[in-house]
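job 3f2a | input accepted
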Amino acid sequence: MHSLNPARDIERISGINARRCMHCGKCSASCPAFHEMDIHPHQVAGMVADGDIEGLANCKTLWRCLSCFACVERCPRDVQPANLIEAVRLWQIRRSGENHMHPQDIPEMLDDELPQQAIVSAMRKYAK
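job 3f2a | predicted structure (128 res):
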């Protein structure tokens, strides 16, 4: 999937207008994975609004987001950063033509702090 306008692709996939974000930071303040991210939820919205999808596609935040939707609940403008992150994930996967996660990748990912729910959710999403 090579589009001339990746930001428009993200908007279409997510159904979200990232330009609504006022960068209040409530989404980032409520994020339990905040300290694991190199780009925080409110910054994701800004990068999508600015069309910097390539910058997002190469960050670890895409794969650190827990998809817990705490950011969605806190957003006063209904920007839904988790849905934007998910849209960029899907865009990246579609662009590369393959899934991000394979069953053989799981053993090296396991640690005592990683919730099993995250692995099960990722396998359901990325192994189709």
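job 3f2a | The chain has a mean pLDDT of 85.
job 3f2a | closed
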